[in-house]
Prior knowledge:
This protein has eleven helices and twelve strands. It is an alpha/beta fold.
Amino acid sequence: MLSRPRRNRKNQALRDLICENHLTTKDLIAPLFVKEGNDPREPIASMPGQFRYNLQELVDECGRLQELGIPCVSLFPALSDDLKDKKATESANAQGLFPRAIQAVKEKYPDLLVMSDVAMDPYSSDGHDGLVNERGDILNDETLPILAEMTLIQAQAGSDIIGPSDMMDGRVGHLREALDNKGYTNTSIMAYTAKYASSFYGPFRDALESAPKSGDKKTYQMDPSNGEEALREAKLDAEEGADILMVKPGLPYLDVIYRLKSHSDLPIAAYNVSGEYAMIKAAAEKGWLDEEKVMMEMLLSFKRAGADMILTYFAKDAASLLASR
Ligand code: PBG
């Protein structure tokens, strides 16, 4: 045998030399949930180790994440039912929980990047990302101005990166124009480009109590069967001014990450979603998987697939582990 691939694996030093992909803390974005009021944080049952924080706790947690070297947090508001309505009115409240949270974090930790979610579902009594009519249709063009309004409120509060997770057509261009018109030319957009109609979002919907009241999200989120279609979405988002393209979920869609990375010259993000987190936590609790090892292997797989950054509920654990090495 002239070629023996095992020769390059003979010890750790050599394995380090030939190592193709590295995971660093600088690749990580930590999603966090903030809730109204002063009551202490509430654990999210289906996401062990994740919480709905009150505003002060959220700021403190952001400080700990920054201390660990995590460059960015992605914030989501958990609102009580009485603040939800069909038009997501609360999303346009400049004194609302979400803009106050963004502002508080940026005030205390100006160097920590804050990404903020744009979609109607946290504020919608229908639990959908867009406006719902009497027939149950999700209205695309009528939703865009609502998204633009919440975008401007988040930008004004100091958000560094707007994250439209709604999957309405044309929203990236619409939001870019709205931002530019108000002078927020420096506010970035990370487009949820290939967001699939996935069952892996269950625990997140528990966290926000935002599950659709009727129907599903299949008329706006992508069919899990499709890969080519992600390229079409990517092309549109790039043309409309997206700064970063995201694939979501992550683990079941590594091929899509790879495709987008190969076809686009924009940075690619992977969203390692709530269900992926829950699977590992549950298996680890049962003693069936080694949580730390599986977590690191999974995060590395996103890098290998081509992701430049990873949104993950494991951000803090991974950063702590990397810091201890
Ligand atoms: C909705 C939104 C969802 C997630 C982020 N934004 C759920 C959904 O589309 O129903 C899921 C994130 C996760 O599961 O971790 N705008």
